[in-house]
Known about the structure:
The complex is a heterotrimer of chains A (about 350), B (about 150) and C (about 375). Chain B is of the alpha+beta class. Chain B contains 4 helices and 5 strands, in the order αβαββαββα.
Amino acid sequence: MSGGVYRPAMDWWQAHGLPVWILDAIWMAVMAAIVTVFVLLTVLILVWLERKISGDLQSRVGPNRVGGRFGLLQTAADALKLLMKEDLIPAGADRIVFVLAPFLVFVPTLVVFMTLPFSDKWVVKDLNLGVLFVIAISAIPVIGLIMAGWASNNKYAMLGAMRAAAQSLSYEIPLVLAMVCVVVMAGSLRIGDIVEAQRGGNWFVLRFPLQFAFILYFVTAMAEVNRVPFDLPEAESELVSGYHVEYSGMRFAFFFLAEFAHLFFVSAFCATLFLGAWDGPWLPPAVWFLVKSYAVVITIMWIRWTVPRLRIDQIMGFSWKLLVPVGLVVVLLTGLARV
Amino acid sequence: MAKRTNLLSEVAIAAWSIAKGLSVTLQNALRPRVTRNYPAQRTEISSRWRGRLVHLRGEDGRPRCTACQACQKACPTLAIGTIVGDERKGRERRARGYLWDASRCLFCGLCVEACPFDAIVLSQDYSVVVESRAETIFELAALLEPEKGAQS
Amino acid sequence: MPLGNEMARSLTPTEHVTLNMGPQHPSTHGVLRLKLEMEGEVIVGCEPVIGYLHRGMEKIGESRTYPQFLPYTDRLDYLSSASNNVAYVQAVEKLLGLEVPDRAKYLRVVLLELNRIASHLVFVATFANDLAATTVFLYAIREREMIMDLFEMWAGARLTQSWVRIGGVAKDLPGGFAERAREFCRLLPKRLDEYDRLLTGNRIFRVRTEGVGILAPEMGVDYGCSGPTLRGSGVAFDVRRAEPYEVYERLDFEMVTHPTCDCMGRYRVRMEEMRQSVRIIEQCLAELPKGEVLAKVGRTVRPPAGEAYGRVESPRGEFGCFVVSDGGPQPIRVRLRAPSFFHLGVLPQMLQGWKIGDVVAILGSIDIVLGEVDR
């Protein structure tokens, strides 16, 4: 990967008799740092985008003062404000768990970005088990949620966390089923292979029956990221308390950042699995990747600002009674199509 | 099989209803924004707006108010305090002191209706901004409209 | 519908949990405290605690003259202040035996119906917002701004107009008002269609409101409910038809009911009522007779001793004002009958067996205003 810098550097390194794995490790660390910075910048942009898009849909202007007419520095100002807030840990809270929880939510979200193919030459690490890795790591933030709810020493935060966990887990299954369809179609778990199979405009979303897998993935992705209409774990605060109610300042910012990072990830992953990732004519591949990812993000935001919210039993019923059977049927159809 | 088709049609109807909603929000996104960029753009205030109390002057430049206390009697919230007139009697008297409490005022306009001399109006001034409770009580000098020809 | 708790209850005796939906809350419409008693997820009891907005209106009424009390009535149901004004003023006019000029009656109806639309728009906005359809909130408020502009043009105030007087209306319509009002009446039905497309047909909205929060018609009548809360249960009671006031008997409009007794029913009643109000306003503007807008009333209002009750159909239900006079310039008793008070009374019954997520929907659908509950 990485456009011609790695090879010469590796040659120089090996010429000096230094072990390969050290350079690899350093390389990986540098790539990871670059991706992390990218993710943080993306989150800043996404928060601004959400506010601007919601403003557009609601006949109003979004942020328009901080950083020029378009309020471009608004998120930075908000982040600064959050940094300056008092760091409160509630009395009777389990301190260690309380402090660890945001990390457990944020770090896995960052880690999965390492498998995304930003362009034909830019992947931090194209694992052989890419899709499986993504599924596995994406399940870790749920633990962080439960930790946050438990450690808050707040009955209602606990309730909210339990619901968030229940929702996340029940939507894992249709999500995995949708991804399984793609894996079956591509014949491999490796994300590089999946993208290769879609080159030249032959995107998976255009192949029957993956349109249904696309819709299934889209809906379950919204549920995984806790977006309306599935945002009851967060909106519990309208009635009881969400799982992050006792968090303030930078700790809360971590949850917030994690949510938006996760949102971008599922959109980018959707673009990778179904829309051909960086594949496209005459624009550079990285630009195509971003265009497709942002298209999915904007659609999710559009839906978020249009539809009302579902109740928890309706959310669970929707998953178990509709999405899982549909997922199974689509997997079957995909298998038959592949035969 | 009938139950299966029912489910499918329900899903289709549900998806269609959400699609209709999405089209509405999209249409609205294409309309112009209704936000006015205050304070750069100010809204036009109607001429009947009931804002800050203002004492009007007569032709001779003196306040029209004759300290008849009709406004004080009409006010529901005792927002109009002490009214002091000069030594003359009846219609010739003019007010020397007048206290209006902006924090008690309901801006209902009953005082304006009660005044027999059209001496007071509720103006279009909507920004009554003070920095302490004591400053919410306005005296006659602050309430009088500017003299004709004077800088406002 | 109690969801399968009977079996659980019989096997494991559990304690009830008390959950406090406190006075500071984004979804209680005002400062209302709900003490919810829950068995797991299901609500088995509810005690509304009110009084956080009590301002002693009725006591104040005893120490103000009749005209002076009028601006206080605005602040009761502050979302539709003209209804409160008219109820009070009707009671006083009954005591005085005063005849209001025709033009004033028509103008009062225009004011009342504009207030009704404004209030129902706030209902749609907050109801949708409670269910997370925030965009509808902003659209409805955008439409309501047009009504606020009309009020500003006419009365000089947006919310608490205090524009009704004993004997009529304070001032006549300004120039250009009729055109702007008609323009608004043309625009509103189209916007209501948009809300229908966004909300009424939306599957998620329907799933949250259909069948939720059933108010049986008999219970509604027993508890003294009125207005869209009662009409959403199919009971055809509207003060504008039961005891017509102003010029409602001359106007052609439908009394809107809905048979389903649930949140969706109440919501649909209010949506349709907005369209009917547009009809009424257009008729009034067309039929507006010439004449005075204020009857001649002396400087001091001293009704003869007696008592009178004025009732109007406010957007929330029957708002009533009972005034007792002893011949002096101030009433000796002003009693205000607020519809939201009675609806809060029936709320615990309506919440039985539902889950927490439904509390917000049900509370939103009965559309209370704490200003008139607490007075």
